[in-house]
């Protein structure tokens, strides 16, 4: 199953291996990035690629990227248009997908892997040097002039001492499977947006990591899995996915051969795969969806579809951008040498409680909110916990909390409900070492069931919320707490993307 590829056996400390059933996801490791950085010196002195002259026009080679594998597809950067990119793009186009020249000069949009030093970065899109192509310029044609090869293979081809080249460059294909093929679709399907402005960065971050982690193959015949890097964030992006699939089917044989099986996409929207229309879901029934939302049954009050198909789709942790990542990293007590602070309080939640954004007040009847608008918010879980437990000693269930960070270090349990779709607290509180309390019926959590959530969290059915305090009391014995906290130290490593937060828990990044 695909999740088992993504979530891999722990290879950290012995203690951690015992505590954590299944571990490091390839997305989460730091190895890839290091390898790429070190490898670059080696590779840029290489060469060894062949450019087929004349596949694209000279104009295209000068201004754009020529995909030589597809017989000379000219990929324009965002500010250019036309067959061989000789026209200027319309200003409205730039406004929608890029930024002003002024802004770009001050704060340039990033390019995937900085174009692997084989191209230049223009408004967030690589313009690859002649002979190189792919979203980060890591592809080129091999000696036969037809089969595409990746960076590592290029290094080997560069020198006669292939042996020496491969041992001196830390960038190399992973030995363990899976091997993943990434379709090099035109920008308009995948990267035609400003990566600095997108609020959920997983698509971009994953993309950047794929190459560095050594799982990518240049030849689709060798792949176990195929990634269609369509940007999927909103409902309408679903239609673009259908267009992207059409493009993929026209240019490569594998989608039709596998009838869409072993192909995967990301959707980072609130309700993941449930966010696209039924038509899109049906047309892509064999795809594996990676999303943040694990709802397995329809939830009518909020109009939520049964988005997640266990065994087919994978719930992945929310991606905190580098700012959030660093702010958490600085405070987390999960570093192996950090002192274990005693946690004296019981249950913490701070955030929106009422669907209508009002401040809940015990003077009102259930659900304590000003109106019943959006009462299906968080499946009613936040409202329920507040209603029954807001005034209990050792409990803090509030909408605003100026002591949030110290509280996250001082409470034993932290409520991690859903929101207007997926929540992010299960990830945040885990990073802070607070045991997640999951009140979210029919919603699977990141990497569940491959990751054993029962080992480090507690799940309480919504029907049992009234007696929640008794359950927590029963589960808060010193040994039981310690056992879960040990397991959480390991599990939390697999919910954070080291690329944005750094390896602050000293995860070794091997897998
Ligand atoms: C790209 O280059 C910039 C500036 O040198 C650097 O800060 C950034 O980390 C690089 N990004 C990647 C993915 O290598
Ligand atoms: C999904 O795969 C099955 C075979 O496993 C095939 O019969 C069906 O047509 C495929 N559905 C779609 C929507 O591609
Ligand atoms: C909300 O609905 C409940 C029944 O579920 C009702 O008792 C309550 O009065 C309603 N509140 C408001 C403000 O309409
Ligand atoms: C909370 O409980 C105390 C007694 O334990 C009571 O005096 C107080 O009025 C309660 N406050 C609210 C807001 O319900």
Protein architecture, described:
Mean pLDDT is 83; it is low at 1-49 and 159-170. The longest helix is centred in the C-terminal third of the chain and has 16 residues, at 478-493. By secondary structure, the chain is an alpha/beta fold. Helices cover 32% and strands 13% of the residues. The strands form seven sheets. A five-stranded parallel sheet has the order 11-12-13-14-15. A hairpin with a 6-residue loop joins β9 (140-141) and β10. The two termini are 17 Å apart. α7 crosses α8 (162-168). The chain is elongated. The chain has 20 helices and 20 strands. Bound molecules: 2-acetamido-2-deoxy-beta-D-glucopyranose (4 copies). One 2-acetamido-2-deoxy-beta-D-glucopyranose binds at residues 365-366, 371-372. It holds the Pfam family Exostosin_GT47. Residues 1-35 form the signal peptide. It is a single-pass type II membrane protein. Belongs to the glycosyltransferase 47 family. This is EGF-like domain-containing protein.
Could you name the key traits of this structure?
single chain; 511 residues; alpha/beta; 5-stranded parallel beta sheet; 20 helices; disordered N terminus; binds 2-acetamido-2-deoxy-beta-D-glucopyranose
Largest sheet: 5 strands, parallel
List the ions, cofactors and other small molecules found in this model.
2-acetamido-2-deoxy-beta-D-glucopyranose
Give the spatial strand order of the biggest sheet: 11-12-13-14-15
Q: Which structural class best describes the helix and strand composition? A: alpha/beta
Spatial extent as radius of gyration: 24 Å
- Measured as a percent range, the helix fraction is 25-40%
Please give the count of helices: 20
User: What is the residue-mean pLDDT, rounded to a whole number?
Assistant: 83
**Straight-line N-to-C gap:** 17 Å
Strand content: 5-15%
Any idea what the shape is?
elongated
Which stretches are poorly predicted, pLDDT < 50 over at least 5 residues? 1-49, 159-170
Number of strands: 20
Protein name: EGF-like domain-containing protein
InterPro entries: EGF (IPR000742), Exostosin (IPR004263), Exostosin_GT47 (IPR040911)
Subcellular location: Golgi apparatus membrane
GO molecular function, one term: glycosyltransferase activity
């Amino acid at each position: 199953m695909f999740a088992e590829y993504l979530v891999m056996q722990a290879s950290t400390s012995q203690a951690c291996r015992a505590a954590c059933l299944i571990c490091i996801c390839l997305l989460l490791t730091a190895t890839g990035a290091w390898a790429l950085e070190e490898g670059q010196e080696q590779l840029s002195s290489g060469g060894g690629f062949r450019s087929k002259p004349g596949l694209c026009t000279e104009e295209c080679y000068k201004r754009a990227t020529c995909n030589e594998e597809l017989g000379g597809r000219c990929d324009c950067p965002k500010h250019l248009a036309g067959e061989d990119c000789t026209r200027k793009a319309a200003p409205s186009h730039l406004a929608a997908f890029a930024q002003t020249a002024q802004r770009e000069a001050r704060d340039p949009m990033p390019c995937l892997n900085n174009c692997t030093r084989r191209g230049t970065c223009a408004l967030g899109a690589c313009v690859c040097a002649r002979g190189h192509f792919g979203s980060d310029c890591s592809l080129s044609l091999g000696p036969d002039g037809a089969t595409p090869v990746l960076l590592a293979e290029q290094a080997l081809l560069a020198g006669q001492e292939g042996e020496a080249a491969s041992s001196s460059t830390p960038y190399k294909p992973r030995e363990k499977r899976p091997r993943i093929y990434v379709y090099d679709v035109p920008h308009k399907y995948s990267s035609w947006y400003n990566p600095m402005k997108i609020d959920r960065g997983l698509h971009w971050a994953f993309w950047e990591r794929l190459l560095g982690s050594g799982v990518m193959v240049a030849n689709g015949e060798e792949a176990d899995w195929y990634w269609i890097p369509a940007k999927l964030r909103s409902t309408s992006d679903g239609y673009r996915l259908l267009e992207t699939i059409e493009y993929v089917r026209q240019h490569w044989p594998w989608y039709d051969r596998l009838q869409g099986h072993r192909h995967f996409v990301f959707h980072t929207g609130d309700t993941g795969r449930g966010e696209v229309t039924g038509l899109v879901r049906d047309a892509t029934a064999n795809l594996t969806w990676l999303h943040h939302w694990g709802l397995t049954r329809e939830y009518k009050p909020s109009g939520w579809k049964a988005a997640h198909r266990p065994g087919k789709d994978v719930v992945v942790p929310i991606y905190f951008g580098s700012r959030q990542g660093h702010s958490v990293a600085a405070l987390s007590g999960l570093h192996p040498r950090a002192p274990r602070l005693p946690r004296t309080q019981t249950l913490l939640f701070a955030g929106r409680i009422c669907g209508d954004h009002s401040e809940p007040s015990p003077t009102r009847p259930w659900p304590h909110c000003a109106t019943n608008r959006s009462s299906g918010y968080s499946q009613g879980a936040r409202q329920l916990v507040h209603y029954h437990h807001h005034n209990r000693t050792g409990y803090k269930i509030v909408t605003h909390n100026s002591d949030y960070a110290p509280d996250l270090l001082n409470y034993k349990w932290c409520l991690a409900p859903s929101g207007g779709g997926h929540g992010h607290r299960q990830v945040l509180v885990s990073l802070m070492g607070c045991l997640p309390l999951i009140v979210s019926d029919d919603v699977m959590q990141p990497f569940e069931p491959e990751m054993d959530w029962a080992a480090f969290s507690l799940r309480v059915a919504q029907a049992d919320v009234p007696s929640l305090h008794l359950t927590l009391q029963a589960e808060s014995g010193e040994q039981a707490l310690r056992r879960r906290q040990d397991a959480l130290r390991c599990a939390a490593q697999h919910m954070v993307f080291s690329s944005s937060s750094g390896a602050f828990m000293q995860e070794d990044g091997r897998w």
